[in-house]
Design a protein that fits this description.
This is IncW plasmid conjugative relaxase protein TrwC (TraI). The protein is an alpha+beta fold. The protein has 36 helices and 41 strands.
Length: 1025
């Protein structure tokens, strides 16, 4: 019986020790002869990146590098050499002697034999292995093309990259209260060059690579001693150093006369036959097939499989015998092509540093307002591979006037003036008309109850103590209005000036600012609070034109009143998950005296959730921004945006522009602690922290009850550790467990249930076992039918403009362009890829996939569309149950709608990511969050996930302690406005050094005082004698 049970042993979900036994039987089953002929990708970079950094945990592991036993080929042993300024300081140069190497492994000075670093811990980390690899075509050209120049060029690229890494080396400074890292700029490292991969069936394939063994020691010239190094920053910047290495290697090869072609994550030499590359990529193919067998998708986990699938070396092999065996595996035509590829051209490609940087900026700033400068350089190097140089990219960076740089926590961060101006436009709209608009509420409703407000930065809501309660609240006079307090963004309520609630009889256009009524002194405010109440109290609101009573919590009512009495162009209401924001919004809009529209960023949130809740004309933000007719419905009125945290800064700036043009105000509903947009920006944080706007908070959680509600409330306050512990005490955090069984049990109990997982990879695994259990229970009926599907690739516009990223995929037009209409699908091939790349703004890109469905399956819509009749809209994110199949093979849903078998935009509906779950509510939520998803875990993810249920939230993990740590990560997005307020580059370092100097100076002074005091006491003692 198949079940999704995590191993409750505190190790990752895929236990690599356990895999040793699994692979022993899996490798023969995969078939090596089949592997060589398969169509599996041959790009080694997909599994073995060109630079991988691994810690060397102990001395015994480090000493194995010198023996090179795993790779030794008779007649081809390579001599290791010392490198680095640190090695020179120790008197190490030239060939690596075994005694010197092993002494360093034991943290001993290679010459004196004394302890090297000042501190020596028993479990100290010996150092790091930086493994540099080349693409398969280069290894083939060296081994079979006999181009002996290649190893030297390879080692030269390694040495250049290691020199750059050496410049970044630092050590910790903790003397006398100091707390910072000091650059040392020196390393001790040795290179070990190998020419083959690990063997398959006793025989290796050609694979040129270098192990750069870096010792955990660096010379601190200020403290005059050897100390342990700080490698965290180097590991974090591994993609940057990899891009540097790859660029240098590509340029060196082109200087030799080779032509290169970019692949997905690497490059190959043009001319080496593709079949030859596949033939000698058996190990890569084996790892890929093993990963598929085990359901592993993450590149870093695949890399770990490399250590698990190793075979022992077959003794007695010579280099010549290996070459002879390799030649026998290829055809004469392939041999000829390899020798023809060994070129001696002298022309080099024209450099395109400016174009590469332009592309990198378009790509990077589509989804981030601020990026590390090194990430931008990495992207430019990868994009311009073969036509750029590191020096050229940095020179181009320095010449750009539209880039803004600041140093933040030791890293150079960059943004653009365009991104900054976008944020400033949003802030300008929010601030320019503050206090100058007429209240939104109807005159007869504005006196219902004395309202209360919340400081925008308050940790808890004072609304809970400030609203009068009763069975029915009737209008009282006078009414109120709100204004901000100086510098704090707070609101205080006061009796309204009759002039501030005037009707529109004076002919003023409804909704427009009344300049003549702007308060002369908005900072002078009084308070008019009502009696206190508990969070559980419910307030019943009776609207003048609505006989039906509306039950609201105190903070809901205060938020309603905050919106009604606001005189600002932009109004903010913050609502935690499950506080009834939609219910509150209904009451709010019933009392609004202007036309309004309500929007949400996603189709399911707008046309799905909001329309089901009674907002019949709710629309997506995207349609509103494109459809002038929809925009006119809000003229001189109000635009309400729900789930505002999911709106990016670019769309928000466009919304602001539309609102300004139609004289409308904007009301944003959202929660900055939930997920943010995929596009750049964090609009709610920008407005709350930078605009100084008052924020009403809906704080009482209504979705859950008891201790479950308390856990969600803790998470909504950012206290995910406390929320986790509370759920754990309830027994709802399980190390192990049968998630499929619990899913079926919930259905059996008549409960709505949803599984949430941080990653699609883990979600796919859970889906498989849930479907298997449903089949076993007889809930999936009949024969499965397989349908062609489309899986979104989520490329940026810059990536879509690259034809190489499109070929072999499907382009779907999201808007009309040229001869294509919205909804048209086009298979991309070599003939049309360039044309489609020019339509990057108008297309979405998909990979082809397949989907097996049976009667009873849950199916989720993954893109907006219509059913087969064209009468019913299918919203992205909506979930349905398969009721059957028509004679034509189309899919019939449980609501009698029929989806075309060619629709494509379908996925299993059992599991969604936390991002997709935001806004959904079910009875029970099951959260699959094993070790393979920890890198996608965080505060926002955990908060959103656990708050989806009404009755229960159960977390299934492989390691509770590690999950507890993983959910501490915060999706903190730096804004361009925040970056420009950061100290300029160098100031922070100078301040840190100054503080450290003053501390050390103070310590010396105190030492002197104490020393003089002791001398005086000794003198006095002597005198008294």
């Amino acid at each position: 019986m198949l079940s999704y049970r995590f191993v409750s042993c505190g190790r990752p979900a895929f236990d690599l020790r356990l895999l040793q036994n699994v692979l022993a039987s899996a490798i023969p089953m995969l078939g090596i002869s089949e592997i060589a002929k398969s169509g599996t990708t041959s790009d080694p970079a997909e599994v073995l990146t060109m630079l991988r950094i691994n810690a060397i945990p102990n001395s015994a592991s480090a000493k194995k590098y010198y023996s090179v036993a795993d790779y030794m080929i008779e007649g081809q042993e390579q001599t290791a050499h010392w490198h680095g300024k640190g090695a020179a300081l120790l008197g190490l140069e030239g060939t690596v002697a075994k005694e010197d190497f092993e002494r360093l492994c034991d943290n001993l000075h290679p010459k004196s034999g004394l302890q090297l670093t000042a501190k020596h811990l028993e479990n100290r980390r010996v150092g790091y292995d930086l493994t540099f690899s080349v693409s398969k075509s280069i290894s083939i050209l060296y081994a079979l093309g006999q181009d002996d120049r290649l190893p030297n060029e390879f080692r030269g690229a390694v040495a250049d990259t290691m020199a750059e890494i050496e410049r970044e080396m630092s050590t910790r400074v903790r003397r006398k209260g100091a707390d910072f890292d000091r650059k040392t700029g020196n390393l001790i490292w040795a290179d070990f060059t190998h020419h083959t991969s690990r063997p398959i069936n006793g025989t290796p394939d050609p694979q040129l690579h270098v192990h750069a063994v870096v010792f955990n020691a660096t010379w601190d010239s200020e403290e005059k001693q050897w100390k342990a190094g700080q490698f965290g920053g180097i590991k974090a910047d591994a993609p940057y150093f990899q891009a540097m290495f790859r660029t240098r290697l590509a340029n060196r090869l082109q200087a030799l006369g080779y032509e290169i072609r970019k692949t997905k994550d690497d490059f190959e030499v043009t001319g080496v036959p593709e079949r030859t590359i596949k033939e000698f990529s058996r190990r890569t193919t084996l790892i890929e097939k093993t990963a598929d067998l085990l359901g592993i998708k993450k590149p870093e986990t695949k890399a770990k499989l490399g250590a698990t699938t190793r075979e022992p070396k077959k003794e007695g092999q010579t280099w010549d015998s290996l070459v002879k065996g390799w030649e026998d595996r290829i055809t004469l035509r392939e041999r000829h092509a390899i020798h023809e590829t060994v070129a001696h051209k002298e022309t080099l490609p024209e450099l395109a540093n400016a174009a590469a940087l332009d592309w990198a900026m378009r790509h990077s700033f589509e989804r981030s307002s601020v990026v590390p400068e090194r990430d931008l350089v990495t992207t430019a190097l990868k994009h311009g591979l073969g036509s750029v140089t590191p020096e050229g990219i940095y020179k181009e960076l320095g010449s750009r006037k539209d880039l803004i740089r600041r140093e933040v926590d030791g890293r150079t961060m960059v943004t653009t003036r365009g991104v900054l101006n976008e944020e400033r436009k949003i802030l300008e709209f929010a601030q320019k008309g503050r206090g100058r608009w007429k209240p939104l509420g109807k005159a007869e409703d504005r006196g219902v109850v004395t309202p209360v407000v919340l400081p925008h930065n308050a940790a808890s809501s004072p609304f809970e103590q400030a609203v009068s309660t009763g069975s029915t609240l009737t209008p009282t006079s006078p009414a109120a209005h709100s204004q901000p307090m100086e510098g704090a963004g707070k609101i205080k309520e006061l009796p309204a000036d009759p002039d501030l609630v005037t009707n529109l009889s004076n002919g003023q256009e409804k909704g427009r600012p009344d300049e003549s009524k702007r308060p002369s002194n908005p900072q002078k405010l009084d308070t008019a609070y009502g009696s206190t109440c508990n969070e559980s109290d419910i307030v019943t609101l009776t609207l003048a034109e609505q006989p039906k009573k509306v039950d609201l919590t105190p903070s809901q009512l205060a938020a309603v009143r905050h919106a009604w009495y606001s005189r600002d162009p932009l109004i903010l209401i913050r609502g935690a998950a499950g506080t009834g924001k939609t219910h509150m919004t209904k009451a709010l809009l019933k009392g609004v005296d202007v036309p309004w529209v309500i929007l949400a960023p996603s189709a399911e949130a707008s046309r799905g959730v909001l329309r089901r809740e009674g907002f019949e004309n709710a629309e997506t933000l995207a349609k509103f921004l494109l459809d002038e007719e929809t925009q006119q419905k809000a003229r001189n009125g109000l635009i309400v945006l729900d789930e505002a945290s999911l709106a990016g800064a670019h769309d928000m700036a466009r919304l602001i522009q539309v609102a300004d043009s139609i004289h409308a105000r904007v009301l944003l509903l959202g929660d900055r602690r939930q997920h943010k947009s995929v596009a750049r920006g964090d609009v709610l944080t920008l407005l709350e922290d930078r605009a100084g706007l008052p924020v009403a908070e809906v704080s009482e959680i209504r979705r859950q009850g008891g201790e479950y509600r308390e856990a969600v409330k803790l998470a909504s306050q950012g206290r995910v550790s406390d929320a986790f512990e509370k759920l754990d005490r309830l027994g709802w955090v399980k190390q192990g467990g049968d998630i499929a069984g619990d899913y079926v049990s919930a259905i059996r109990d008549g409960k709505s249930v949803l599984v949430v997982s941080p990653t699609h990879a883990e979600g796919d695994q859970v889906t498989a076992v849930i479907r298997a259990r449903l089949k076993q229970e007889g809930r999936l009926k009949g024969e499965e039918k397989t349908f062609d599907g489309l899986s979104p690739v989520h490329l940026t516009e810059a990536e879509r403009s690259e034809s190489a990223n499109l070929e072999g995929r499907v382009a779907v037009f999201v808007r009309s362009a040229g001869t294509h209409k919205a909804g048209d699908r086009v298979g991309v091939d070599a003939g049309n890829r360039d044309e489609l790349a020019q339509r990057a703004k108008s297309i979405a890109v998909y990979d082809r996939s397949s989907l097996a469905l049976a009667i009873g399956d849950s199916v989720r819509i993954t893109a907006n569309g219509k059913d087969l009749s064209g009468n019913h809209r299918l919203n992205n994110g909506s979930t349905y149950t398969v009721d059957g199949f028509t004679d034509a093979g189309n899919i019939r849903l449980n609501n009698s709608w029929v989806i075309s078998k060619d629709f494509g935009h379908l996925a299993p509906g059992y599991v969604v990511t936390s991002h997709a779950s935001q806004g959904r509510t079910v009875d029970r939520v099951l959260i699959a969050q094993s070790a393979q998803s920890f890198r996608a875990s965080g505060k926002e993810q955990f908060y959103v996930s656990i708050s989806r249920g009404r009755e229960r939230a159960t977390v299934y993990t492989s390691d509770k302690a590690s999950l507890y740590e993983a959910i501490q990560r915060d999706d903190q997005r730096m804004l361009a406005s925040e970056l420009v307020r950061a100290p300029r580059k160098g100031i922070k370092d100078k301040l840190k050094k100054r503080v450290a100097f003053l501390r050390e100076l103070g310590s010396r002074v105190m030492d002197g005082v104490r020393s003089r005091g002791m001398e005086k006491r000794r003198d006095l003692t002597h005198e008294l004698g």
